[in-house]
Amino acid sequence: MNLARLAAERATPVRVGLIGAGKFGSMFLSQVPTIAGLEVTAIADLDPEKAMNACRAVGWDEERIAATAFVEDGAALTARDDVEVVIEATGNPRAGISNALAAFEAGKHVVMVNVEADAMVGPVLAQRARAAGVVYSMAYGDQPALVAEMVDWARATGFTVTAAGKGTKYLPAYHQVTPDDVWAHYGLTPEEAAKAGMNPQMFNSFLDGTKSAIEMVAIANACGLDVPSGGLGFPACGVDDLSHVLRPRDLGGVLEGRGMVETISSLERDGRPVFRDLRWGVYVVIEAPNDYAAACFAQYGLPTDATGRFASMYKPFHLIGLELSVSVLSAALRGEPTGQAREMRGTVASVAKKNLKAGEMLDGEGGYTVWGKALPVAVAGNALPIGLAHGVRMVRDVAKGSVVALADVDLGEDAASEMYKEVLAGG
């Protein structure tokens, strides 16, 4: 709990390079002027002028902007001598993997905001970072890192983790939503969304279940938890019922067993809002190791199930990029990640939103063609990961609702596809 002091007392500021000045990156940039001992020396974005305007929009003065390098190429940023921590916030898994590898080669720590890349090949990236003697970290403020922190707290205090995850707004029909009809589910008109600069495909990835799948797989891979064999169930559940709903089925809950990831819905299946929902938050359900600890749950007001053995802790909100500096400072000052992929427990399989025909191009997460389903690696087999499902051509037909296989597309060759093959081979 001493990151602020360590940063303030450091002889030189922690120097950061940001790749991708979108919403997450902008939220981080808004905090930089008020963090002692941290400075952003370079920002890479495909549109440097847009990145400069993002800095102005979050309150940077012209002096700070003039002192910052703005470049187009992420790999060039990683090679700069005035960058020691690289934040990868492009949201593009192929770009994210390439930028991370370049950063490792240059001896730079990487904070991976790009959870799409992490869920696909995170354990291999972490291995490459260790070999290079640098830190590879999840991004604090995003749900996976916050859940990893809660899981670590639970285990460090001697509890068994029964379930961990986050909340979201979910109904089964959302899997078929496309960018054309996404805004109605957010209570916006297309005109209002466009005026606010909101990307319909990105926001649809949150709605159609894909982003939840990506984040739950990232948590599973970082925390050694299991992904449900049939995919996420999205049970409707409020904060008062976490320990009752998220326990094993043989005890009356919804889980296949102990140690699972799961996303809970803020909507009942008939569309009614869940009482005291956790739409914006994260949770962990723990099991007491003995009768004494279970009695303490009750004595100190922790919500439990009827047995008194299962209890829950939760955080109602996450502040995304506003909290990202915790990861940056932890990597630079402590040499520690705020969560890190360790093993491939799960992957995010691409499922056809419609009948797909040979020759058709896939448009990735949140688009018109596929949505992402979290599955255990052993169940997913040779499924096409959602991170590789953008801009690839179908080579054979796949029926609506079916999992798209690697062999169903012309994958091409690049760092991302080759690394995923390494993952499948157990690398």
Task: Note down, in words, how this protein is organized.
- There is one protein chain.
- The protein has 427 residues and is of the alpha/beta class.
- It folds into 3 domains: 3-141 and 322-334, NAD(P)-binding Rossmann-like Domain (Rossmann fold, 3-Layer(aba) Sandwich); 144-170 and 209-318, no CATH class; 346-424, Type Iii Antifreeze Protein Isoform Hplc 12 (Alpha-Beta Complex), CATH 3.90.1210.10.
- Helix content is 34%, strand content 18%.
- It contains 16 helices and 15 strands.
- The chain has helices at 3-9, 23-31, 48-57, 62-66, 74-78, 93-105, 115-132, 143-156, 190-195, 200-207, 210-223, 242-245, 291-299, 325-334, 377-380, 415-424, and strands at residues 14-19, 38-44, 69-71, 85-88, 109-112, 136-138, 160-168, 260-265, 282-287, 310-315, 346-352, 361-363, 370-376, 390-394, 409-410.
- The strands form 4 sheets. The chain has a 6-stranded parallel sheet with strand order 3-2-1-4-5-6, with helices on both faces. It has a 4-stranded mixed sheet with strand order 8-7-9-10.
- The longest helix is centred in the first third of the chain and has 18 residues, at 115-132.
- It is globular and about 60 Å long.
- The two termini are 35 Å apart.
- The model has no long low-confidence stretch (mean pLDDT 96).
Quickly name the level 1 CATH class of the largest domain. Alpha Beta
The CATH architecture term of the largest domain is 3-Layer(aba) Sandwich
Largest sheet, in brief, is: 6 strands, parallel
Total domains: 3
